[in-house]
Design a protein that fits this description.
This protein is mainly β. The chain is built from two helices and eight strands, in the order E-E-E-H-E-E-E-E-H-E. It has a single domain, classed as Barwin-like endoglucanases. It has helices spanning about 30-35, 95-100; strands spanning about 1-15, 15-20, 25-30, 45-50, 55-60, 70, 85-95, 105. It has an eight-stranded mixed β-sheet. The longest helix has 7 residues, at about 30-35.
Length: about 120
């Protein structure tokens, strides 16, 4: 049996940009992506702590060390600048493997990885 399980989570970061005219996705500081084990174009779920909105999109790399969390396209309506969000990704794996799995969870301070 295969199940879907939490792979990575960036817990409580602030949206720094929202661009309605961009084609879509979420821009994430490359250092945060690496620390959370999220790769470019990976599907991520966004949970907006500020307003309760939830949506899925894909990750794109932002400038390393910039702290950027940019919501792009129509999703910018769901997470405007200043929103506090959680970014999560999931993996599908064998049930027995999943029992031993430990997700990568990071808790950045002020959107920076060096300040955990």
């Amino acid at each position: 049996m295969q199940i879907e399980i939490l792979k990575s989570k960036i817990h409580r970061v602030k949206v720094t940009e929202a661009d309605l005219d961009y084609i879509g996705s979420i821009t994430i500081d490359e250092a945060l992506m690496e620390a959370a084990n999220i790769i470019e174009n990976e599907r991520v779920d966004i949970y907006n702590i500020t307003n309760g909105e939830r949506f899925s999109t894909y990750a794109i790399k932002g400038e390393r060390g910039s702290g950027i969390i940019g919501i792009n396209g129509a999703a910018a309506h769901k997470a405007p600048v200043g929103s506090l969000i959680i970014i999560a990704s999931y993996a599908i794996m064998d049930f027995d493997e999943a029992k031993k799995w430990h997700p990568t969870v990071i808790f950045p301070k002020e959107n920076k990885i060096g300040e955990l």
